[in-house]
Amino acid sequence: MRLRRRTFGDVLKAFLAFVVLLVLVVGVPGALAVSVGWPLPHSAPKMEWLSQPIGVDVFLNTLTVVVWLAWAQFTACVLVEVKAAVSGVGLPGRVPGSGPSQLLARQLVAALLLVGATAASFTPGLSQLGHSLEGNQRGTVATAQATPGILVQQQEQAKSTAAALAEQASHAAAQAEQGSATTHGATKYYRIQPPEGRHHDSLWEIAQRHLGDGRRYKEIYELNKDRTQPDGSRLSEASLIRPGWIMEMPGDAHGGELVENPDAHVSPEVRQQVGDYARTGDHAQRRGGGQHAGEDGATAQITVPSRRPAGGDDAGTPAAHATPAHASSSTSTSTSTSTSSSSSSSFGLSEALLGAPLLAAGLLAALGRRRRQTLWQSALGAVGGHRGMEPPTPTGDAQDVQDALLVGADPEGVRLLDRSLRGLAAALTAESRSLPVVYAAWLSHGDLHLQLAQPAGKPPAPWTLGQDQTFWTLSRADAEHYEDTDAAAPYPGLVSLGTMDDSRLLLNLEAVPGIVSLSGREADRAAVFASVAAELATNGWSDRMTITLVGFGADLTPLAPNRLRHLDDVEALFETMEAETRQRRGALGAADHQSVLTGRTGPAQHTRWAPNLVLLATQPSAEDALRLAELAADAGRLGIGYLVGSESDDLPGAAWAMEITPDGRLLAPLLGLELQAQLLPAVQQRAVVELFVEADPERDPDGPTTTPPFLVDISEQGRPAVYARLVGPYEIIGLDTPDGERSPLLHEALALLLLHREGVHPRVLSSALWPRGVPDDVRDALLERLRGWLGTDPDGSARLGADAAGRLTLAKSVVSDLDVLRSLYHEATQGRGVESRAVRGRLLTDALVLVRGPLLADRAEGRYRWLTHEIIDAQLPLLVADIGLALSAFHLEKDRAEKAIEALGAALRTAPADERLWNELLRATHATGDPDRLRALAADLVARSGARGLPPRTEALLDELLPTWRDSAAATG
């Protein structure tokens, strides 16, 4: 901005300032000398002087002495201000006890010198005009931001602010006339208080208490930025302050917690610290300009934890030399993304999901629950007709995304993270300690590191202190010793942001003292927001929570309808969150809790205090941003987090600012972060949602398709070349048992292919067999052995092939008993068995004979872990139950109750929890006409139900078939 030309008003102000200075500095002493003369006695007073009456002369002389002292003080202030303005070095010194006088002198000198030819050179000494007087006006922040610069930079900046100084001087004079002496005294300081429970000081709250407006926190930040604190660290981010730090306050600060330097009401230690801090003020920073924020490291930043040494730490914690599955982004993807020598696996999957092991595991677990729910609702809700046992097979992008989830997921990592956090909460509860405030968690080389907001003492074993007092660390070996506990999830707001130096960062959105802003291109921001929303909605280390999506994400709600809430705009957000904020404050007060963390430990943990995490993807207006900042000022204590999108990195009221770049890096310079961001791009987002929508039981009232994905020829002519028995102990007929240690791997690979007749991506296969990763050449060597073991059909075609998309498929000549079981049931209920009762009975009987127990009953411990991602454990019992029910109905039509009971008993051995089988068994037993047998069965059912009691449908059926069953149950009980 160019220097404004001097106007007549400027000249007039300067003339008036000159007149006032002339009157006060020269006129006042001249008038006193002429009118009063020498006010002090001409000789030493005697003791009798004290007993003499006080006359008019004595009173006038005393008043004259007071006026002379005031003149001397004011003249000293003028000289100090003129010297500072003319020299251009440093800030004006403070004349003791002369706050209002020095303020007036500064204003008059500024008004006079602004019209001079050398005004620009005087501005360093005048730059504090706005600092002392403007309150929450922009001039304060702008001036404070200029303070750390060197002299040359200040002089250049002074040219652009000369015009504003005249207006500030005029405004200051008006304030001085209104008697602002009580608010602008000596420099005031505030000492950051230690936390109480979870509540801890924030600059916003300090500004709210002592400046009357939380939005003025930036003034405090700019006054203290990069100044060395008593503990040797520096303030580099407005949201990261420590107990014991000292903050210089703006001149109009007020309140009993403020101290001046020196102050007789504080301890000598604190007084010394305040004095030392005062000497590192603006003038000191001018001499030492150029220091960088956060150069002291961990005390003011989110810091990457140090890797444990190979021999373990001093506490004897085992070294994390064994890399866990998906311990970090590089670990989980280094082996799966390398170039393959096989053309069948040359095409890639979604790298975004491959590099997001915790998100992938959460999505897979939620998808599995949804598909199981659909199966049960389809089975229990259908009356007559046939229930489908097969969910729709995904295709296209949905199939690629499902494969990427299978490859990238780390369910073991999620399990350990969840147990570790809950175990920590339980241990702290046992020690009657509250949960520390955790800003972030790092998964690094198999270890879990919690970064605390401030030191919280020694952690409970097996946790140890990390690289400093703000890190609590748990090795993977120790984490594996944790068992399941009923402790509440202590940090449900943790969410993955990305990786840095082989470490994965989870930011605790719930604990951030204010808003987290995210700037960058709209599409890039959307990918981050989608990833955050999807992981929060499906993660395995949380209990209940609410994720409020504002202005985006309506299509994401199928992922978790009970967690995700969509609001149309910011106005709806304010209406909702203002009410919830009031409600949470009241609830905490009524429960006598300082924060939600104290409600998650100790006797009150049953209350849970679930968080509400607000995701606002579009930038709010300036007015809405300030309103949102006010709403978020106390959010950390209440368990509410805010992540807000912004087109730039200067969102008003943002405590932490991040930026997503077009190349997928997540930057937060003031936090010391540069991450490879975790993203969920739009294509993958739509495909993930499609998987959940297809599995929704409410989407299709007729249920999933009833046709199995693979039907076999069940006639004599359809005898397969290779027959694998999976339902029960694993057996293979038609192949020689492979020799050597690779036999278990070959059997497991074949089982996976048999359970997925639609095809298996090579990377899905390698991830299932080697969860911790494997080189492509090892995988390809196994596939060649599997291809050679399976052999070829008589026509010369290989029994292990690949489809057009490169997925591994089995020939129709390779069949499992599960394929036969499905085909028999399908033929009995939808094929030839529909028209022929005899055929139906024979097919159902043959199907039930195939059931020899659970799937892969004799599998070795530690193998077949990929089954946790499958729903076959839910499909098989339902299929067996349907076969048993159909065969029972077949026999009861001819009054063959004993045959029906036999069929139901066989089905119950595989599906013991199916209520339909028990109810049908009651009807079949009632059909025998033996009341004692029915009473015995009823008593057995009551005993099995335990404290939960019988299901309502079973109770109603017993009331109909055996009205006296309640009396018998009461007598037995």
Précis, in short:
The protein is built from 34 helices and 22 strands. It is of the alpha/beta class.
Mean pLDDT: 78
Shape: elongated
Alpha-beta content class: alpha/beta
Q: What is the CA-atom radius of gyration, in angstroms?
A: 39 Å
The biggest sheet, with number of strands, parallel, antiparallel or mixed sense and barrel status, is: 14 strands, mixed
Report low-confidence residues grouped into runs of 5 or more.
117-185, 282-300, 309-347, 382-387
- The beta-strand count equals 22
- How far apart the termini lie comes to 90 Å
How large is the count of helical segments? 34
| Helical residue percent band | 40-55%
Relative strand content: 5-15%
Major sheet: order of its strands? 6-7-5-4-9-8-17-16-15-10-14-13-11-12
Region (Disordered): 303-347
Transmembrane segments: 12-38, 58-82, 103-122
Organism: Streptomyces fuscichromogenes
Keywords: Membrane, Transmembrane, Transmembrane helix, Two-component regulatory system
